[in-house]
Specification:
Order of helices and strands: HHHHHHHHH
Low-confidence stretches: 95-99
Helix content: over 70%
Distance between the termini: 33 Å
Number of helices: 9
Number of strands: 0
C-alpha cells in the first residue's frame, strides 16, 4: 500500500470521516452542549468502536453483511431507529442544558452505537473493499488498514466538537439554539431516508 494507493486511501478516509453523519452530528451537539473537554469519553468510544468495526471488516465480516439480505435489513432497521433517537437528542439543543444532563452519551454508548451506524459500516466496508493493503501477513494488513483510518478520524472528530464548542459561544439566544436543534433534526431525518434509497 504505497504511493498512489496510500494517498487515495488517506483521502478516502479523510473525506468520509469529515463529512456530516451520525457521529459528527452527535460530536457537534456535545461540543455545543457540554464543551470540548466533556466530549472526550464520547470521542474515545466512537474511535474504539469504529476501530473494532474496521478490524472486523478487514477480516471479512463485510462479505457476510453484503451477501446476506437479512443481515443488511436488520442493520438498516437498527441503524434507522438509532438515528431517529439521535435526531430527537440533537433537536434538544438549547442554552439551558447543563453539564450534568442525564442525556449524556459516554464511552460505552459511543462504542456500541458504531455497530448500528449505517454510515460507519459503509465507510468500513468500502474502505476494506477498495484500499486493503497487499501485505502477505493478514494481521498486519488488517491492522494497517484499521489504524490509518482511525488516525485520520481523530482530527476530524476533534474538528466537529470544536465547531460545536465555538457555536455555543456565538449562539446565545434560546431561539437561535432551537433553530440549530431543528436543523440538526432535519439533517438526521435526511440521513435516515438516505439509508433506504
Amino acid at each position: 500500500m504505497l504511493g498512489y494507493n496510500l494517498a487515495g486511501y488517506l483521502i478516502f478516509a479523510f473525506v468520509t470521516s469529515i463529512t456530516p453523519g451520525p457521529n459528527n452530528f452527535l460530536l457537534f451537539s456535545y461540543g455545543k452542549n457540554y464543551g470540548f473537554k466533556d466530549s472526550g469519553k464520547l470521542m474515545a468510544g466512537i474511535l474504539a468502536g469504529f476501530f473494532v468495526m474496521l478490524l472486523a471488516t478487514g477480516y471479512g465480516i463485510a462479505e457476510i453483511i453484503t451477501q446476506n439480505p437479512v443481515a443488511e435489513l436488520i442493520l438498516k432497521v437498527l441503524g434507522s431507529a438509532w438515528l431517529l433517537y439521535l435526531a430527537f437528542v440533537l433537536s434538544k439543543l438549547g442554552s439551558e442544558i447543563t453539564s450534568d444532563n442525564a442525556a449524556k452519551i459516554g464511552f460505552g454508548k459511543g462504542f456500541l452505537m458504531q455497530f448500528i451506524n449505517f454510515k460507519a459500516w459503509i465507510m468500513a466496508i468500502s474502505g476494506a473493499s477498495a484500499f486493503m493493503p497487499t501485505y502477505a501477513n493478514i494481521h498486519l494488513k488488517v491492522f494497517v488498514f484499521a489504524i490509518l483510518f482511525a488516525l485520520v478520524g481523530i482530527p476530524c472528530m476533534i474538528s466537529w466538537v470544536f465547531l460545536g464548542d465555538t457555536i455555543s459561544r456565538i449562539l446565545k439566544s434560546e431561539r437561535a439554539n432551537r433553530m440549530l436543534g431543528y436543523t440538526l433534526f432535519i439533517l438526521m431525518i435526511i440521513s435516515i431516508v438516505m439509508i433506504w434509497i
